[in-house]
Amino acid sequence: MRRAPAVVIASAAGFAGIVAMHSAGPSSLLSGSGPSATPTVVPTGSPRTAIGTSENYGYGVLGVKVTVRGSRITDVSVATIQTAEQYSKQLAQQVIPMLRNEVLSAQSARINGISGATYTSEAYAYSVQAALDTLGVK
Questions:
Q1: Which residue range is the domain that position 67 belongs to?
Q2: C-beta of residue 120 within 8 angstroms of C-beta of residue 114
Q3: What span, in angstroms and rounded, lies between the C-alpha atoms of 92 and 10?
Q4: Given pLDDT bands bounded at 50, 70 and 90, which one contains residue 6?
């Protein structure tokens, strides 16, 4: 029972650290405030596609292909993926469809990251932004 006060103090300190981290605001392309307002641009012209940079995210390499029509993102798919281990592969298979939906909803690379897949989320967002930059879409 002598350890109980130390455990309570350590838990409180950890919780305070997490709260402070979340209140500090995002430091990457990942947004903590949900999708931004969707532009009201009507898609015109023919679809254009670009492949974003292949991002090394610590557990592998990830690159995406973005398709736009006018300034509207119409599709996002994985162009390249290499994972370091089986767990990373399984995690990527689970979160990539969610990240795709985030990009299509936000119509930008400023997306909500997926809990438990922060590095994958950041690599995905950076690759999307690189593709959008190539296409000249803001």
A1: 28-135
A2: yes
A3: 32
A4: low
Average pLDDT, the chain: 80
Contacting residues for 123 by C-beta, under 8 A, at least 6 apart: 55, 56, 57, 62
1, 78 contact by CB (below 8 A): no
CA 10 to the chain's CA centroid: 31
Chain centroid to CA 95: 9
Q: How many other C-beta atoms lie within 10 A of the C-beta of residue 134?
A: 15
DSSP state of 71: T
- Cα separation, 19 vs 133, in Å, equals 33
User: Is residue 88 situated within a structural domain?
Assistant: yes
The total number of structural domains in the chain stands at 1
Backbone angles phi, psi at 2, to 5 degrees: -70, -20
The CATH number for 101's domain is: 3.90.1010
Model confidence over 19-77: pLDDT tens digits?
Answer: 444 444 444 556 544 433 333 344 567 999 999 999 999 899 999 999 999 999 999 99
